[in-house]
Amino acid sequence: MAELSLSNIVKRFGGFEIIHGANLEVKDGEFVVFVGPSGCGKSTLLRMIAGLEDITSGELQIGGRVVNDVEPADRGIAMVFQSYALYPHLTVEENLSFGLRMNGNPKADTERRVRHVAEILQITELMKRRPKQLSGGQRQRVAIGRAIVREPQVFLFDEPLSNLDAELRVQMRVEISRLHKKLGTTMIYVTHDQTEAMTLADRIVVLRAGNIEQIGAPLDLYDDPANQFVAGFVGSPKMNFLNAVVVETQPGRAVIALESDANTRLTLPVADPIEAGAKVTLGIRPEHFVDAGTGDADLTVTIDVAEHLGNTSYIYATIGPEQLIIERPESRVAGNRDTLTVGLPANRSFLFDGAGKRLR
Ligand code: ATP
């Protein structure tokens, strides 16, 4: 097991800077997930930790040792890829034992470790098969098994579940969580799927365009996002963003009106001074609307589509040119209606300035 430390890690490809000075401390045994949209640099960051990419500048430590110039095989890490990267001509058992055999590990110990891993991952009955005789989920399990037998100090996962169908992805997600509990090993996991991030992580690192936007526990990011980007990235369905304008300011507070419905006004506390007339964005999560008349303002929307899921409903709606999603308990949206009026609670509302900075 090991802690991990990134100080001012920069990556340049040619003259182009991709990672702009990343700082992160990962505790021993922690499960850290890197999330962010395509191209934000999360795989590059992981590959630098693995030693598959050079670090342009900055310092990387694993288990208290600077490893910038240490070969991948000597870093005490094992990596699981999206593509599984299994040897097609070898059986499951041979795939699992391959690395240990190549390192000259004693035969009896290799056999013991392979047996143990097969039990943990419940693939014992597949040992004589070749990868092409396995389902996607089974292949991914073998790929994870191959990482476990090496007994690494740190596991690195690069979007390991993205080739699996939705149901299997959920199942494997739970298995990876169980595995982390069982092994207690430090894990770093890359995904663009915010649900995977929320469910797996002790802490999430949100990346955008080569910068770390926020680091925090999943629910801290959900409750207290640093800016509009993080607010929109964490949570499913996504937070609604509605254009608004500041119509009046009071000490420590601003009265805002929605652009799409000037009658919808909300008074919100703001940390920084803001001028009347400033354009702002109101953020409200689909699950935080309340019954009409019980919030701090009412909002009437036109219903485009209502999805009834039994316990809850998702209302895809518009207000003027803007779209939003409202989640309501099933019982509150019964009947065929064209419009819906809901309450906006000020204490669950976020406010961002034109640059996406959090005002509240
Ligand atoms: P995805 O989810 O699409 O895999 P990502 O967040 O993992 O995205 P990276 O693969 O780390 O993103 O890429 C970050 C940026 O670095 C991208 O703009 C990409 O084009 C660029 N990049 C990655 N590898 C190279 C390379 N070998 N040479 C030049 N540019 C690269």
From TrEMBL:
The alphabetical list of record keywords is:
ATP-binding, Cell inner membrane, Cell membrane, Membrane, Nucleotide-binding, Plasmid, Transferase, Transport
The way it spans or sits in the membrane comes to:
Peripheral membrane protein
Which superkingdom is the protein from?
A: Bacteria
The chain positions of domain ABC transporter read 4-234
Checking Pfam families in the record gives:
ABC_tran, OB_MalK
* Family that this chain belongs to: Belongs to the ABC transporter superfamily.
Task: From the Swiss-Prot or TrEMBL record, give the protein name.
Answer: Sn-glycerol-3-phosphate ABC transporter ATP-binding protein UgpC
Species in which this protein is naturally found: Rhizobium indicum
Taxonomic classification, please?
Answer: Bacteria, Pseudomonadati, Pseudomonadota, Alphaproteobacteria, Hyphomicrobiales
